[in-house]
Design goal:
- By secondary structure, this protein is an all-alpha fold.
- The protein has 3 domains: 72-206, Orthogonal Bundle (Actin-binding Protein, T-fimbrin, domain 1), CATH 1.10.418.30; 294-347 and 489-624, no CATH class; 349-488, no CATH class.
- The protein is built from 15 helices and 2 strands.
- Helix 1 packs across helix 8 (181-206) and helix 5 (124-138) runs parallel beside helix 8.
- The radius of gyration is 64 Å and the shape is elongated.
- Mean pLDDT is 73; it is low at 1-77, 207-217 and 616-625.
- This is Kinetochore protein NDC80.
């Protein structure tokens, strides 16, 4: 249960449990009927009781003014131990409690240590001063008992106030420690809640918000008291006192009627003020709807400006992409023209070289034919000479003799191996080398040399003839290919020239398109300027309307009645909402201005980027054509 509700329940329990008793016993002394005005600053001492006869407009009673002392009277019952529902050990809760206690003490004018730093770890003296100050706020007539220690008195007072949780005297001996201060801080906050609740309860009761049932009950009690006093005076025979009692009763009734009439007039005036306030609030709501419409219009203008800015951005991006594509196409055309010029130059060089090499090719062909004739003649002479025939016969005899020697050597080798004479490590060789070495390798080399000598001239001459013939064919093919390449390069050069003409035409069309884009950008810039002027006018009008609304709200807030707390809270809430909406409108207008500035910057960049550059490579294109 919250602290306020707990304090309220305990206060109501104390008030209902100690209602004064009315008896019908005779009295020899007359009772005085006095009218006791109530006020929020009236407090009954904690140690005294006083009985008054009240005939006010709110309650008829012979009541005991013991609003707090009925809980402070000694009781034989011990306070019921309850489980602590508050998180007194939580650091965040302790911090918030310290801040609240410091704020309450400062508002009440406490002259001691009331800062959050001092109350976070208070000394024993600071705690005693703060507790004494709070108890005197609860009852201004309360004083310290010089015969008792403060710790004992503090514990006894909280027991009499029926504080639901026990307070340790050991904790009061060391107040500022980390484990003793949170429970004591919670007790002080409970005392603060009790003071605030008591003030609210007394204020409401003094304003006249008493039920009809309690009013009737008070009137009956006054009647019983009057009957008792009148009967006592009748028995005593004191007629003068009886007349005085009757006069006091009539005066009390007249006072009650006057109070009821004044209360009725006050209620009517408050009703009229509330109706006027409702009408003014309705007017404020109408002006608020106008401000909301203005805000919606401003938002529409902002959206339109944003769409226009996006369209300008897309146009700028499209122009940039088109310019990049055309620039790339022009660069590619220039590169193709350069390659075509290089190919034409290479073709012309090859043709001129072929013309220069034509006499040398013819001379080589004639030399090759002469060499072929000489080679054929020499081959015929060699084959027809006697030396060639003898050499051929000697080579044939040598080859036959060599083959016979090789066969005999192989027969000897097989016989020596059967007799175990070879190799030198054999059984019957006794370390002697009986291997027959006929120089087969030398014979083979001699035979190969004779074969090479007999066949080297003719193959070489054939190869020379074939090489000369091949060289002639290659020269002829090179000349034909050079002629074909020259013709193809001439055709390619014509195609390149036509492509260059097309590129020149494209560049001219691109320049014309850039000029049109520049004209459109200028028109867009002018439109943006007009939109910016219109948006600025709308923003100024919206600001003026917001200022007028704020002035109206300030005037309305000044006209509000301070006693009407609920209407004041509603008006304050509406004012805060209107202020928030005004702030949102200003932010929207600032955003619109930022968009307009960004659009102007984009238009400036667009103008800077679309100025027509000089025609690219015009001299090279004319030279290529």
């Amino acid at each position: 249960m919250p602290l306020n509700a707990r304090a309220q329940s305990h206060a109501s329990t104390r008030r209902s449990s100690t209602r004064p008793r009315v008896t019908m016993a005779p009295s020899v002394t007359p009772r005085r009927a006095t009218t006791t005005p109530l006020s929020s600053s009236t407090f009954t001492p904690l140690k005294e009781r006083s009985t008054t006869f009240s005939a006010s407009k709110h309650k008829w009673s012979a009541r005991a003014s013991n609003r707090h002392n009925r809980g402070l009277t000694p009781s034989s019952t011990r306070p019921r131990k309850a489980r602590e529902p508050r998180p007194v050990g939580d650091k965040l809760y302790v911090k918030q409690s310290v801040e609240r206690l410091a704020e309450f003490l400062r508002e009440e004018g406490f002259a001691g240590a009331c800062t959050t730093q001092a109350l976070a770890r208070p000394t024993g003296r600071d705690f005693e001063d703060a507790a004494t100050f709070l108890l005197r706020l609860l009852d201004d007539s309360w004083r310290r008992d010089s015969q008792k220690k403060f710790d004992d008195e503090f514990v006894d007072v909280f027991k009499k106030l029926r504080y639901p949780f026990p307070i340790s005297r050991t904790a009061l001996a060391a107040v500022g420690t980390a484990h003793t201060w949170p429970p004591l801080l919670a007790a002080l906050l409970w005392l603060v809640d009790l003071i605030e609740h008591d003030r609210r309860h007394v204020s409401k009761r003094e304003e006249g918000n008493v039920a009809v049932q309690l009013e009737h009950q008070g009137a009956d009690r006054v009647f019983y008291e009057y009957a008792s006093d009148a009967y006592a005076l009748f028995l005593a025979g004191d007629d003068a006192a009886g007349e005085a009692l009757n006069a006091r009763l009539e005066e009390a009734f007249r006072q009650r009627c006057a109070d009821a009439a004044s209360e009725r007039e006050t209620s009517l005036s408050r009703r009229d003020a509330a109706l006027a306030k409702i009408a003014s609030l309705k007017d404020a709501a109408a002006s608020l709807s106008k401000a909301i419409d203005g805000r919606s219009k401003a938002e529409a203008l902002c959206d339109k400006a944003a769409r226009d800015a996006d369209e300008a951005e897309r146009s700028l991006a499209h122009a940039d992409s088109t310019l990049a594509e055309r620039s790339a196409a022009a660069a590619a055309a220039r590169e193709d023209a350069r390659r075509a010029q290089a190919n034409v130059a290479a073709t012309r060089e090859a043709a001129s070289k072929a013309r220069r090499d034509a006499p040398m090719v013819e001379r080589l062909l004639r030399e090759a034919a002469r060499l072929e004739d000489d080679l054929a003649r020499r081959r015929r002479q060699r084959r027809a000479s006697a030396e060639f025939k003898e050499l051929s016969k000697a080579e044939a005899d040598g080859r036959n003799h060599a083959s016979q020697c090789r066969a005999a050597a192989e027969t000897y080798e097989r016989a020596a191996r059967r007799l175990q004479l070879v190799p030198s490590s054999a059984k019957n060789a006794e370390g002697t080398n009986y291997r027959l070495d006929l120089g087969v390798a030398d014979a083979d080399a001699l035979e190969q040399a004779s074969e090479v000598a007999s066949s080297i001239i003719a193959p070489k001459l054939d190869e020379l003839k074939e090489a000369v013939a091949k060289r002639g064919e290659d020269v002829k093919l090179a000349l034909a290919s050079a002629r074909l390449q020259s013709s193809s390069l001439q055709a390619d050069a014509e195609a390149r020239k036509s492509r260059l003409r097309g590129v020149v035409d494209d560049i001219k069309r691109l320049e014309e398109r850039l000029a049109r884009d520049r004209d459109r950008a200028d028109a867009a810039r002018l439109q943006a300027g007009r939109d910016e002027d219109a948006l600025s006018a709308e923003a100024d009008a919206a600001r003026s309307r917001a200022a007028r609304d704020a002035d109206d709200l300030d005037a309305l807030a000044r006209r509000l009645d301070g006693s009407e707390e609920q209407s004041k809270a509603e008006a304050a809430a509406r004012f805060e909402r209107r202020r928030a909406r005004r702030a949102e409108l200003e932010r929207a207008l600032d955003g619109a201005e930022a968009i307009a500035r960004r659009r102007l910057a984009m238009n400036a960049e667009l103008r800077a980027s679309i100025h027509p550059p000089p025609p690219p490579f015009r001299g090279e294109v004319v030279e290529a054509l």
